[in-house]
Amino acid sequence: MSKEKNIFVTQPFLPPLEEFNAYVEQIWENKWLTNNGELHQQLEKALAHYLGVPFVSLFANGTIALLTALQALDPDGHRGGEVITTPFTFVATPNALVWNKTKPVFVDVEDQYCNLDPAKVEAAITDKTVAIMPVHVYGNPCDNEALQAIADKHGLKLIYDAAHAFGVRKSGESILNYGDLSVLSFHATKVFNTFEGGAIVSHSEDMKRHIDDLKNFGFRGEERVVLPGINGKMSEVHAAMGLAQLRYMDEIFEKRRSICHKYMVLLDSVKGVEYIVPQDDVESNAAYFPVFINADYPVSRNKLYDKLKKNGIYGRRYFYPLVSDFEPYKEEGEKLDLPVAHRKSEQVICLPLYPDLPLEDVERICKVIKNI
Ligand SMILES: *Cc1c(COP(=O)(O)O)cnc(C)c1O
Questions:
Q1: How far is CA 99 from CA 80, 82, 112, 243, in A?
Q2: Which of the listed residues 63, 114, 186, 350 should we mutate to test ligand 1's pocket, taking the one with most ligand atoms within 8 A of CB?
Q3: Do 280 and 221 share a structural domain?
Q4: Is the Cβ atom of 162 under 6 angstroms away from ligand 1?
Q5: 167: CA distance to ligand 1 center in Å?
Q6: Is there a domain that residue 207 lies in?
Q7: Nearest to residue 367, comparing CAs of 275, 273, 255?
Q8: Does the beta carbon of 235 sit less than 6 angstroms from any atom of ligand 1?
């Protein structure tokens, strides 16, 4: 076998070092390293503008942002309650619910986008349900209208784990404007990264102030603590990374979309390999390229996964296992009926996708998939 280079599922975009360094020099001059510094304030404004949302609160990571979003929507009302969420997600989603003393109730997903199925959500509501936490899986929007209608009808909070959904628009509008709050992750593996980082998108000045109090120990001014907050602040050097990267995002999305297009063209006629086509009115962020290996394919998903690895191609099985099969959730999970989520989890491989992935590499990957 020829010695070909390894291709990994993702590779972070790094802005030109001198542009990052220019911000770092500013930090050295200001001698202001964290606590709502100049770059932090700049990045919040720039992100709100770029994303088309009213208010952004930056965080140290997406998980603390999830924890804080749940706290922000009335923690007392949440104590002991149930929150309906998806098993087809990263484990931070249910973990954040448990840390907020609420019980995750896993509901099955729909077949097309692997997002929460609204009909099954409504059927799972009990008198203990306090909120719904859907995930825009792979950046494809949930059925937001249906979920909002259910939340309104039953008086539930609607908090989106939008960790995959940076920059996604539907009918020209940011999908981060749906629901009560949306939570973003800027982890190194996400489309927009600040090494580690995250944010909450909110829709009123009062809610933003509440969130900003919560992430800064509950301090308001020097001598007052108004609530029991946490330390969720983003530092200046992380904000610098965000500012240096933000000006490249249009270019990054263009490159990602053209790679997805290439995958779709090359895999279109391959029997047993399905992929997700973005909805017509959706401007996709091309965050992931999942393929689903069904019974018409000559070998199993895991055999293909291993064969890709042998050829130096490292896909990832997002999301396998389902979070409802992990130890902390298994006992509850085994009682649940989650056929679609289980099937999708058994079929999925996310193929390598990052802005600098050469199109020749996409051809090499598709050749392995075709010539099984
Ligand atoms: C990445 C991710 C998170 C966690 O974000 P961190 O910034 O890594 O804490 C939460 N939910 C989903 C769906 C994610 O993909």
A1: 11, 13, 31, 31
A2: 63
A3: no
A4: no
A5: 16
A6: yes
A7: 273
A8: no
Select from 67, 47, 63 the least CA-distant residue to 214: 67
Structural domain includes residue 10? no
348 dihedral zone (left: phi>0; alpha: psi -120 to 50; beta): beta
- Percent share of the chain, pLDDT over 70: 98
Structurally, the chain folds into a number of domains equal to 2
- In degrees and rounded to multiples of 5, residue 106 shows phi and psi of -85, 130
Q: Residue 189 CA: which ligand 1 atom is closest? A: 1
Confidence bin at 3 (pLDDT 50/70/90): low
User: Hey, is 169 helix, strand or coil?
Assistant: strand
pTM above 0.90, yes or no: yes
DSSP code, position 292: E
Q: Are residues 200 and 233 in the same domain?
A: yes
Same structural domain, 102 and 84: yes
Short-list 2, 108, 58, CA closest to 214: 58
- Whether 122 contacts 190, CB under 8 Å: no
pLDDT 10s digits, 322-336? 999 999 999 999 999
